[in-house]
Amino acid sequence: MRRRHIWVVIAAYNEVGVIARVVVEVRRCGYMVLLIDDGSTDATAATAEKAGAVVIRHPVNLGQGAALQTGIEYALREGADVIVTFDADGQHRVADIDVLIDAMAKHNVDFVFGSRVLGGAINLPPTRRLLLKAATWFTRITSGLSVTDTHNGLRAMTQRGAGAIRLRQNRMAHASEFLNQVSASRLKYIEVPVTIEYSAYSLAKGQKLGNSLSILVDLSAQSLHR
Amino acid sequence: MIAQLILTILLGGILLYAWTEYRRAPVIGVLAMLAALAGLYFVWIPDHASRLAALVGIGRGVDLILYLWVAISLIVVLNLHLKLRAQMEVITVLAREIAIANARSAASPK
Hints:
Chain A is α/β, with parallel strands linked by helices. Chain A has helices spanning 19-28, 44-51, 64-77, 95-107, 126-143, 159-163, 174-185, 200-205, 209-224; strands at 6-12, 32-37, 54-57, 82-87, 111-122, 155-158, 189-197. At the A-B interface, strand 2, strand 3, helix 3 and helix 9 of A face helix 4 of B.
């Protein structure tokens, strides 16, 4: 598979401090980089474009879930064979993209999820570890998927897999919604070990306990209306 | 009697509201319908309201009706919340289309 048909989708909001490094590193591996600037008020979009990303700008801030769905739809329109979602804050390792792509080809699956439980999580605080465990427990029950790391932003999907995804959760609940839709699609998936390295920056931008309550409210509200 | 008529009209309005909302949010529709029907029942048979109120420790039947009214109000508020969410989904779709329409294709020359 040619790497220019593999699109790495990055949702970013006010990430001017780290985005150039992330885009350059991914571009260096030969992948297409699609950056969805989610209404940033800083120079994230311009910086990413200069670093070599295709940039799409949301006119207003909508949330990471909305940005990823925009990226998936645009990449599909551009003829992407594989779409990889990748966090903007620099906590993922670019080398892990290859791990996902290789596993996809080897096991002939439509979705590959990165797992920090199978791999590693460097500098992950104990409270965050507990939060992730609770989220994984909850999502395993609601989605019925036997995965070990439900809120990992590093995942790959084939064109067919991406076509089965339609995220309606604009904010952080999209990670659970994504797995629910994978489950509903009945397409094959696999988890592979990846490493996430937390920095003070990524921890400050990451999920808090309050976010997890919002996720529960969002998921419950969605189940009440069509 | 006048109070009964006024409450009947209001609860009838809630029933209509529940009916119109049922297709979009079935849970809300059913809850609002049940609460309104219970309200109508107790408005016209207040003895049963008093008996049920005493049974569940509320005190007076009129208080039970008041509590039902509060429950209906909460259901309506929840429904408004869901409507706002639905509007947000529409806004998201519009914003997405604008963003994609304004994007330069990766294949097109910059």
